[in-house]
TrEMBL record:
Topology class, membrane: Single-pass type I membrane protein
InterPro entries in the cross-refs: Bulb-type_lectin_dom, Bulb-type_lectin_dom_sf, EGF, Kinase-like_dom_sf, Pan_app, Prot_kinase_dom, Protein_kinase_ATP_BS, S_locus_glycoprot_dom
Protein name as catalogued: Receptor-like serine/threonine-protein kinase
Bulb-type lectin domain span: 29-150
Species this chain originates from: Brassica campestris (Field mustard)
Chain ranges of the Apple domain: 350-432
Length: 843
């Protein structure tokens, strides 16, 4: 009897184990076949276990849906829903391969409530959830042919790896439909997709009414989202496929800066689109972009022919008519109802006659989100975009948009927004009387010739007399005074540089009282600029050692006639350095301008610049780790002062080893502020068409798009850290498989071989550990995306606190000196690898 009971127990145990194995097998399936069904409670797992498919109920609902979500992320984040219009009321549903080869959702009575609804050629189909989150149906014997995939049938979420079709012949692609509410996955009232007509842009519709648009795509960003550069550039972010498919279709895709990041774009039930990234440390979704998030981002907020400006209050003129236009309904406008927009004050003449007494003209609006419904037109070599617009009587505006080409607007100008930073110009067509009219051609010709001759004469007189006199009045004093006693000697005088305020941003600083030296005293101090006193040669000119009255040694920077630093940049450096006081910034002692001479007088740095030690085999041995550590810390504190602690917020823009000077105690001092820019404290970024700096040190967004911020300096500082720790130049890896020191550092770090980057002269264990931490910080500073780089306050904390946790850096993909090749100074436009920059200056 006991033996019989033992056998029964064994059989029961084996049966239970078999059932458990079957359940576990189903719940961890990697594909669906005709013989393997996903039932409610089971799930399908993607390769890499990033995504999971199964049955779920939304918040506050008992209805059951089949969906895909991120595995191991709470709360559950749904990215796709199958039966969103036909939910199940119980837990008896299943997802399976039907007899006709389709993937179907069935209820407890085996009735189909959802199907892929395709016509497979073969019947041995399988469904697989890919690591991208794409659910694919194909033949088990021919997996190259996809019969159906969820990425081509999305709900409310766009994931990296998706391809969104763009084809004007097929019309608007309204691919994404949000949930009806937070707890109801059925289709909501909004749609999001691509408008392929004219210049491509993303649009959110409510029915047939536009609620928001991104602005045209310029091959790098959507121009109506100028801050998009923070999370994208030419290397990663949105891309448009090439060449087109046989039917003429191209596809938008998204390339993340780090393939390990979990990213998603979602249109919410309230018509708001978000870009979100999973923060592994905080265990939550971080919002990178939200649109529309401001009043002016709402579609055509101010009506036709009007501009919305979010920097103003509605009560004080957030909406304003374009110049030459007036409110169409004045009473409503005054009451704050701007929907009626504006109308022309004077009708267009639309004359094409060269000898007409009046011809329409144009007035430029700057920093704009270009109007909707623009057309991209081709122009030949004999005409301009302006000519095309003037030739068309229905043309209301034109602009040559970088990355797009000639655009004209023949419909009403709608959805215009003014940006504080970024944006494009728009040339608005106006009647001649609105802009002063246009005279007959012979009068114009006579006026031009007369004005040219008069201007030439004035220029000659000004150059010969006024310029020399004014410069002397601004900078120099005929009475030379002493360096140590102004009243007794005649080397220099103190004079306020009040007229230099014009080169500053408004009136952010007071004009300094800066000593001005006579040219004779400077020439005497440097031995007539002798070779013996020459300290160095650069793109700006030459630096000499000078000994002035009282034996005071100073450094004399004499700018050459061919210097890249013009008079404005020269004045800029004078005002910036004179107002900054920090032990890690070089001190400006005076200046001199006489005739064509531009000279700056600095405190003398007996150990010259950092690059002289760092990249010289014989001198680098003297840079033991403690000195390198102090140099890194000193530069960091100097930058933090510039960005945060000084009364000016200053972006240096040309931080590199040769601009770090070393005093007699090897303490670092940041120098060369000729390219620096002043920000107000509410300003985060700016842009320029004149990109200046040094290849290998320039941040991606600055080198490629002219956008700069304090994070641009952080990037340069990161390069400096890696150079100081390794003793190697960033550009020395050019042509190698790593392409840069940054790439080499990443390669070693990702393989756990970071020590190999450290200069072999650094041997102490404590020193090596500090050096490894510096390398880690350097890689964080040189990440491609602005949003991922720390600010200088965080950098200094990372360096000084050995206990603080350092986040994982992202793999670098950008190398400024490779992407742009050799760009010769003086060229107006340089184009390399289909990237065009205007007035690029390499130093």
């Amino acid at each position: 009897m006991a033996e019989s009971n033992r056998d029964l127990t064994l059989v029961t145990t084996l049966f239970i184990l078999l059932q458990l194995c079957r359940i576990v097998s189903c719940s961890t399936s990697t594909l669906i076949t005709k013989n393997l069904t996903i039932r409610d409670g089971d799930s399908l797992i993607s390769e890499g276990e990033i995504f999971e498919l199964g049955f779920f109920s939304p918040k506050n609902s008992t209805l059951r849906y089949v969906g895909i979500w991120f595995k191991n992320i709470e709360p559950r984040t749904i990215v796709w829903v199958a039966n969103r219009e036909t939910p199940l009321s119980d837990h008896n549903g299943a997802l399976k391969i039907a007899d006709d080869g389709n993937l179907v959702v069935v209820n407890g009575q085996n009735n189909t409530v959802w199907s892929t609804n395709v016509h497979p050629k073969l019947n041995n189909n399988v469904a697989v959830l890919l690591e991208t989150g794409d659910l694919v149906l194909y033949s088990d014997s021919d997996r190259d042919t996809k019969y159906w995939e969820s990425f081509n049938n999305p709900t409310d979420t766009f994931l990296p790896g998706m391809r969104v079709r763009v084809n004007p012949s097929m019309g608007e692609n309204r691919a994404f439909i949000p949930w009806k509410s937070e707890s109801d996955p059925s289709p909501g009232r909004y749609l999001m997709g691509i408008d392929p007509f004219g210049a491509i842009e993303i649009v959110i519709w409510e029915g047939e009414t536009r609620k928001w648009r991104s602005g045209p795509w310029n091959s790098a960003i959507f121009t109506g989202v100028p801050d998009m550069f923070r999370v994208t550039n030419y290397i990663h972010g949105f891309k448009l496929s090439s060449p087109p498919d046989p039917d003429g279709s191209v596809f938008f895709t998204y390339v993340p800066s780090n393939k390990d990041d979990l990213l998603r774009f979602r249109i919410r039930f309230d018509g708001i689109v978000e870009q979100l990234m999973w923060n592994r440390d905080a265990r939550n979704w971080t919002s990178l972009q939200v649109k529309p998030s401001k009043e002016c981002e709402k579609y055509n907020r101010c009506g036709n022919y009007s501009v919305c400006n979010d920097s103003k209050d509605f009560d004080s003129g957030k909406c304003s008519c374009i110049f030459g236009f007036e409110p169409a309904y004045r009473n409503q406008w005054n009451k704050g109802n701007f929907s009626g927009g504006c109308k022309r004050r004077v009708s267009l003449n639309c004359s094409q006659s060269l000898f007409a007494k009046k011809e329409d003209g144009f007035r430029v609006l700057k920093g704009m989100k270009v109007p909707d419904f623009g057309s991209v037109v081709s122009i030949n070599n004999s005409e301009t975009c302006k000519d095309v617009c003037l030739r068309d009587c229905s043309c209301n505006a034109y602009e040559v948009v970088p990355g797009i080409g000639c655009m004209i607007w023949t419909r009403d100008l709608v959805d215009m927004e003014h940006f504080e930073y970024g944006g494009n110009n728009v040339n608005i067509r106006l009647a001649a009387s609105e802009i002063g009219g246009k005279k007959e051609i012979w009068i114009i010709s006579f006026s031009i010739v007369g004005a040219f001759m008069l201007g030439l004469c004035c220029l000659c007189i000004w150059v010969l007399w006024k310029f020399r006199k004014n410069v002397k009045d601004i900078f120099c004093n005929k009475e030379d005074n002493a360096l140590l006693d102004i009243r007794k000697n005649r080397d220099y005088s103190v004079k306020s540089l009040s007229s230099l305020n014009e080169v500053l941003v408004e009136d952010q600083v007071d004009t300094p009282d800066l000593p001005t030296f006579s040219f004779n005293s400077v020439a005497s101090a440097t031995g007539d600029f002798s070779e013996e006193n020459k300290l160095g040669q650069g793109g700006f000119g030459t630096v000499y050692k000078g000994q002035f009255s009282g034996g005071r040694e100073m450094a004399v920077k004499r700018l050459s006639g061919k210097s890249k630093q013009g008079l404005e940049e020269f004045k800029n450096e004078i005002l910036l350095i004179a107002k900054l006081q920090h032990r890690n910034l070089v001190r400006l002692l005076g200046c001199c301008i006489e005739n064509d001479e531009k000279i700056l007088i600095y405190e003398y740095m007996p150990n010259n610049s950092l690059d002289r030690f760092l990249f010289d085999e014989s001198k680098r041995m003297s840079l033991e780790w403690r000195k390198r550590w102090d140099i890194i810390g000193g530069i960091a504190r100097g930058l933090l002062y510039l960005h945060r602690d000084s009364r000016l917020k200053i972006i240096h823009r040309d931080l590199k080893a040769s601009n770090i000077l070393l005093d007699k105690e090897m303490k670092p001092k940041i120098s060369d502020f000729g390219m620096a820019r002043i920000f107000n404290y509410r300003q985060d970024q700016a842009n320029t068409i004149r990109v200046v700096g040094t290849y290998g040190y320039m941040a991606p967004e600055y080198a490629m798009e002219g956008m700069f911020s304090e994070k641009s300096d952080v990037y340069s500082f990161g390069v400096l850290i890696l150079e100081i720790v390794s003793g190697s130049k960033n550009v020395s890896f050019r042509g190698s498989e790593h392409r840069s020191l940054i790439g080499y550092a990443w390669s070693l770090w990702s393989q756990g071989k970071t020590k190999e980057l450290i200069d072999p002269t650094i041997k102490e264990v404590r020193d090596v550990n500090e050096a490894i931490r510096c390398i880690h910080v350097g890689m964080l500073c040189t990440q491609d995306s602005v949003i991922h780089r720390p600010n200088m306050g965080s950098v200094l904390l990372m360096l000084e606190s050995q206990t603080s946790h350092l986040p994982r850096p992202r793999q670098p993909t950008f190398h400024s000196f490779l992407n742009f090749g050799e760009i010769v100074e003086g060229k107006e436009v340089a184009t390399v690898n289909d990237i065009t920059l205007t007035t690029v200056v390499g130093r």
